[in-house]
Design goal:
The chain is of the alpha+beta class and 226 residues long. It contains three helices and 13 strands, in the order E-E-E-E-E-E-E-E-E-E-H-H-E-E-E-H.
Length: 226
């Protein structure tokens, strides 16, 4: 989004990225909870799930590398919910940090901790939005007309998974590579041209050093030390 290049991780085997999830101690089996959902941006990604009892779970996604930096790339988002089986009388050991998701977290010693809520950082987009909001209506209309949005159709297509996880006798052996995957950088001429146009529009509207109107609801973020 902010780089002058497009970065491609295109030396993955079969264009597939795999998450290796550990086995829960005390469990005898695992299945997929119906709450699991994965969606793709362009409807091109496929997924797979493999289980090796008492060893781990493999969650994989296959996505083709875009042929051009001018084309939108595939994306996947979603949630995996696993349903672990426990024998009668068995139990899961608590997480290492003794917490669970909920309104309050109970540590292993019995003390109750309140989850930490992080403050949202004041982003450059927030400051730009406040600058634009401070313009006169005619100025704002003229400014926004020079920032056209590219009409790209994004779909919420379900990622295709096999009906049942693949059962493995053992997890595959990790292959030691002489080097890690290499990301290939390609200069994005279209984005560079758009950035130049946006900068000229911004300077023509606000000058070289615009004064930001303060918004009492969102305090100005002090400069970070460098």
């Amino acid at each position: 989004f902010c780089s002058s290049e497009q970065h491609y991780l295109d030396d993955l085997v079969n264009d597939t990225f795999t998450f290796r999830l550990p086995w829960r101690p005390g469990a005898t089996d695992v299945g997929v909870n119906p709450a699991t959902v994965f969606e793709s941006r362009l409807g091109q990604a496929t997924g797979s799930l493999a289980v090796a009892n008492n060893q781990g779970v493999l969650l994989s996604f296959t996505m083709a590398v875009p042929q051009s930096p001018l084309l939108p790339g595939e994306m996947v988002n979603g949630e995996l919910h696993l349903k672990w089986s426990v024998p009668p009388g068995g139990h899961f050991p608590p997480p290492l940090d003794g917490t669970f998701a909920g309104p309050a977290a109970t540590a292993s010693g019995g003390a109750t901790r309140t989850p930490v809520v992080e403050q949202r950082e004041d982003e450059p987009e927030d400051r730009l939005a406040r600058l634009v909001a401070g313009l006169a209506p005619a100025q704002r209309q003229q400014f926004e007309a020079k920032f056209p949005r590219n009409p790209v159709a994004f779909y919420r297509a379900p990622v295709r998974f096999p009906t049942a996880p693949t059962r493995l006798a053992t997890l595959p052996v990790r292959v030691t590579r002489a080097r890690g995957p290499v990301a290939r950088g390609v200069a994005d001429a279209q984005k560079a041209a758009k950035d130049r146009q946006n900068l000229e529009t911004f300077k023509a509207t606000f000058g070289d050093r615009p004064v930001e109107p303060l918004d009492g609801r969102i305090p100005r973020t002090p400069p970070r030390p460098r």
